[in-house]
Every structure is written in structure tokens, then in C-alpha cells.
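Input (DNA-directed RNA polymerase II subunit RPB3):
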Amino acid sequence: MDYEPYGNGMNDEDAGPRVTIRRSNRTTIDFVLSNTSLALANSLRRTMLAEIPTLAVDLVEIHANTSVLADEFLAHRLGLIPLSARDIDKLLYGRDCTCDDFCDNCACFLRLNAVNRNSDENMKIFARDLTLETRDGRPVEPWPAGHNAGMDGEQELPTRGQPIIMDEGQKGPLICQLRKGQELRVRCIAKKGIAKEHSKWAPTAAIGFEYDPHNKLRHTQLWYEANAKEEWPLTANADWEEPPQEGQRFEYEAEPDSFYINLEGTGVMPPDSVMHNGIRTLQEKLANVIKGLSDEGDAGVPNGMGGGSPMDGVMNGGGTAYGNQTAYGGGMSAYGGGVGGQSAYGGNMGAFSSYGGAATPYGGYRG
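Output:
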């Protein structure tokens, strides 16, 4: 089916980019992006990979750990558990919130209390054992089944912050195992972020990308031993384009205009939502560039040279497009916030970043 929410509403083939969704399920989407350039198609792919906000555990408070796994190891594993990004637009970035540390407006809180008291067999701890709660420890009520919220298809997602469980046993990823007498008590703080900051925020596991399946443009040189056609079978995407005719003249100025994209999500949001959010995020980035190039700042000079462009701080050594001084939040660097500042990765004394690592002078742990 054709999906054109971002065009001008015209059905003309040259009206602008078109998205044709061929197949879609809970985790993957296969679509064709046509009437556009290779540069824009690749920009959309990179945006979907790295710039769509999701939710992931960013700080782990270890209250008790007598398992065989080190605290940093556990924090890293907890940080990689996929969490529901339902209604993620309503959650603030930590750098944009007015709270002193973290609150229900900028974070989600998960607690894990497990102990093997009497069993001689190892007790396995899974992601399903994590319970969602508020900042003050009250349990969070789950969304009603089928309740719609925010983005398209989100009615299938659990409450924001809950682990995504997709295996047949409905257990989720294995966190650790406890022998008799061992205990694990932790509190996880999940925050909003993008994969440019850390891959744990990536909404996609992989994105396949192909164009010109018949290789009419000669962008790819096919190595072969005897017969290229036999050794390089065509993909299913070749059925969507006319094959080259025998003796057809090579058009060296031709450019690709149809791109076959297969997106595999991690389950934190529906794959079509990843696509829609990628298009929206790319539009916003392009709008900021156009605004910075066309408008003039307060001083009457072009933006980016002292004016009011969103990128003005970057070009003049100030903040980044993500806010404040670094892509990771406030402070003079990604590891600290000025004199006596606190690491963006660390926390209070005894807290562990999900990146793992050793203690910092600021009282947390970072990698």
C-alpha cells in the first residue's frame, strides 16, 4: 500500500518522495522509498538507526548483590534490556527536566528483588522479574489491553518502561542465576536517549538497504569465475524494476530513485513507528538547517555566525543540537559538569552506570 502523509497530497508521480509498505509485522517492516535521491534515502536510514528517542536503563543502584556477577557486569546487562517506548514523546530528556536528580517526568524506575533461600538448584532471574514503580516506590498500573496512546501501533506495547518480552516462554532476557543463599536487590533508573549517545537506545537491530537490483547503473562490480548471472542470483526486489534489454545503451548520468529498505526493530516500538519517527526527525533536522541558513539573528548577521540558529552554539564552540554543552547532557564535558560537577554517566555513591566501569572522583561508576 502507498503511504503519503508527508507529501503535498498530490498523486502525481513526480510530486515528491513516496513510501510503499510491502510487508509489516510486530518487529519488521519492508518498504520501498521512491521518487527521491540516494542521499536522502541514506539520510533516512541513518536517522532511523541513531536519532529516534527510546528508553533504556541508564543508572543502576545496587542495594545487595551476592551473585557471582560483578556490579558493573549486572549494570551493563540491565542497560541492554529493551524497554517499552510507549508514549516516549511525553517523557522529558533528563537535561531538559527541572528536577534536581530524576523524577517521574524524565525517568522510569524498575526494581528487582530476588533471593534463593532454600533451593539447591540455580534460580534464574529474567527481565520479567523487573517491576515498574514510581519515584516514591508506588507500583505503576499497566495500560488496559488495546488502549491506544501516541504513535501508530502503540496499543500493542506494554506500559512505558516495562521490559519487552517476545520469547515463547514469556520470560525475557536472562539477567543472572542465583545459587542457594544468594541475593540480588537493585533499582534501575531508565532515561530517554538516542543511539548517537549509546547503542542501547537504538530502536532497530538492523536495516537492510538495496537499490538498482539489476545493477544497470554499474555501481557494483560483481566478481565472478565463469558466469555472473548464475553466480549472482537476483533478489526479490528485481521484480519491482524493468530488467535491462540486450544491447541497451549505458546511461552514465542516470541516478537511482527507488530504494528497498527492510527494517528490523528491537520491539521497543512498532517498526512502522520507527519509520514515521525517522521521517519526522529528518524533517525537523532539515528545517533547522534551512532556518539557520535563511534567517538572521538578533545582531543582524546570518545564523551560525552569532545569530539565533539552533546550531549557532555548535559553530561557535557552545552547546550542541542536543542541548547544553555535550551530546550527553550538561556540564563542561561528557564526564563532568564544571568544577565539582557530577559525571553524566555516574550517580550517587554506590550507584553504577549501565555502561559499567570504575569509580570516578564524582562518586559514581562509569565506563
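The longest strand covers residues 54-65.
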